[in-house]
Amino acid sequence: MKKTFYIAAILVICLTGALIVPMAGNNRAAADLLTEEQKQEAVALCFQNGEMTALSAGSSEEITQEELEKLEITFDGQDLEIRKAGTYILSGALEGSVLISSAKKKEVTLVLDGFCAVNESGEALSVSKTGNLVLILNDGTENVLTSGIAVAESMADTAAEDEAEEDAKGGAFHSKAETLIRGGGSLKVNGYLNNGIHVTKSLVVESGDITVYAKNNAVKVKDAFCMNGGKLTITSEDDGIKAEREEEIAAAAVTDPETGEILQEAEIAVPAAGEVILNGGEIQITAAGSGIQTLQGITLNAGTLTVRSSKDGLKAGTVLTVNDGTVYVDSDQDALFAAENLFVCGGTLDLKTEGDYKHKAGEGESFGGPPGGNRNSTSSQPSRKALKSDGGISITGGDIRIDSADDAVHCAEILEIAGGTISISTGDDGLHSDTQIDLSDGTVTILTSYEAVEANQINISGGDLKVASNDDGFNANGGDSFGGPSRGQAASDTSKETPNLNISGGTIYVNAVGDGLDSNANITISGGYTVVDGPTSSANGPLDGGTENGGVISISGGTVFAGGASGMAEGFSANSSQCSFLITFPISYAEGTLITVSLPDGTELFRHTAASGGNSLVFSCPELVMGESCILTVAEYEFELPLTKMSNYLRVSSDGEVTQGSSAGGGFPGGGFPGGPGR
After folding, report:
1. For an engineered disulfide with 96, which of 26, 57, 78, 638 has Cβ 3.0 to 4.6 Å away?
2. Are 673 and 587 contacting, i.e. CB atoms less than 8 angstroms apart?
3. Is the pLDDT of residue 246 over 60?
4. CA atoms of 298 and 337, how far apart (whole Å)
């Protein structure tokens, strides 16, 4: 079956809504979007059955061939060529292309008023040598620009199609001018040969309903793409939107080969803009490549962005910033990636990577049960992180929901959280930095993770943090100088500075299958309210400091409770300035057990229902005083604990007596939970 059949079919579709064409004096777009001068000087061109009718918009009179030649408008029955700046109104159906050039590089305004152009072998609309192009989509009209033809796969002439693709340049709509699209109509761009819309300068979409399909990139610009309003729907076989201005090559300095004298200074190359900005409107992208990819930045200020991509969702060559708006990304690789820094200041973000991962990772997605997720990311797999930066990440606002196969939030430099609400389900780390994490405000909930929070330096000074993990809740790692990298983490990805976990404020809850709070060196607590439901396995502990590296676990303020297995249990060091105790039992208390700590006068200091069983407890708060005592109740059992030291290590014997122990922890044999002495 010949390709001409498909062209004819497309033209029939175009003509269905274009045979009744508003004549020059009745153009609906002119009322709002054209100046009075443009209305009078505009040329209306209507195409039907290979013929063109030209009218003067101001007088509605037909323009003669001689006048068309003076206006530098030519039509050969297939291609329309316009060589002067001005305003032109196109309607009807054209089997060919529209070629626009202005020798003086002035502005051309093009009004599409129910217009369809199909070019089997190249661009449907080509703009060159023009300073600015304003493309107006007339209210209530449907317009189509098509390069190549849509061929059913079973009928495709592969050789001819490949040849056509080699010859195709630019896109179905190819502009070498600064380009603005506006108006209340619609535009459908079909790039069956190469790109859909290709602008070698900047493209601004102010309004209109635009749909783009492309075998390559749907929208490709060199300088910048800016969306202020309207709707853009994209389907692409490669990237959805690409802004790609290459860095200019710098000239090297010229020196005298004999004397070394500099004859000409080196030229410094300055990268041109290549960024994407969303100020409003709605963008929907379905891409076989990345959703949006730039060599420079991506900035989202308002509007709605929906991306479904087989590679990265948003990939910025420099900085990625979300100030406001609604962002939904479902990608097979990283959802949001920035080569330099990533900022989230506001807006609503719903980010997914490898959407069916939960079914493969495990169950358990809530607190009170074992958290799900496993660490299956390997170097051979593509990165599937939600928020990722090769620089730093700063989150100061916004409502963020993450469901990621790989790390939820991952950066090479400092990760700062100073606001916003973040909900995370991940198969790997919840929050990860190769260097430092600072949490000062905001609400972070990590429902599932392998390790919840991981960095060399972890500083918590405020905020509300609730995490669940299959391994460590917090891991202050230290590279191979301090106990080696964390499991699955290359040593080159972690800092070699002394690891520190510092808690000076905030509210923290940890439900960990591995260590609750873990550092390869120091854990320092000076404030805040921290509760750990730690491991049931004796191979891990609720608190785990790097004593083998000279590290200490110290407390000088705040409230801390950490319960779990006693095999590796550690308490606070003797040099702490706030009183504490570590107590072990001969057998574990059960999940759901009520635990309280009170003063002898009945003042309750702490109350908690354990989310997992254990046979060790660590507790400290400002109200504990060395030389006095406190009352510990576990279920219906009550124990009076003598606080003879700043850091007290206590054991409950099988008959319920409290005795002094050592920092080593460890359980005792016994047939049941001991009965404590009455109060």
Report:
1. 78
2. yes
3. no
4. 10
pLDDT at 119 over 80: yes
Tokens of 148: 């190549």
Tens digit of pLDDT for each residue in 570-608?
A: 999 999 999 999 999 998 999 999 999 999 999 999 999
- Relative to beta strand 241-243, strand 522-533 is unpaired
Other C-beta atoms lying within 10 Å of the C-beta of residue 214: 29
Name the nearest CA neighbour of 43 among 72, 76, 11, 14.
72
Phi, psi (rounded to 5 degrees) for 68:
-60, -40
pLDDT of residue 260: 72
Q: Which stretches of 217-373 are assigned E, i.e. beta strand? A: 219-221, 224-227, 231-236, 241-243, 254-255, 262-264, 275-278, 282-287, 292-294, 298-300, 304-309, 314-316, 320-322, 326-331, 336-338, 342-344, 348-353
Q: Are strands 614-620 and 86-95 parallel, antiparallel or unpaired?
A: unpaired
Question: Which of 269, 271, 181, 298 has the alpha carbon at shortest distance from 230?
Answer: 181
Average pLDDT, the chain: 85
Element (H, E) at 86: strand 86-95
Q: What is the DSSP string of 127-164?
A: EES-SEEEEEE-TT-EEEEEES----GGG--HHHHHHH
User: What single-letter DSSP state applies at residue 575?
Assistant: T
Least reliable range by pLDDT among 246-255, 345-354, 467-476: 246-255
Name, in order, each residue with C-beta under 8 angstroms of 585's C-beta and a sequence gap of 6 or more: 566, 615, 616, 634, 652, 667, 668, 673, 674
pLDDT tens digits for range 418-435: 999 999 999 999 999 999
**129 contacts: CB under 8 Å, gap ≥ 6:** 101, 102, 103, 105, 176
What's the full length of the chain, in residues? 679
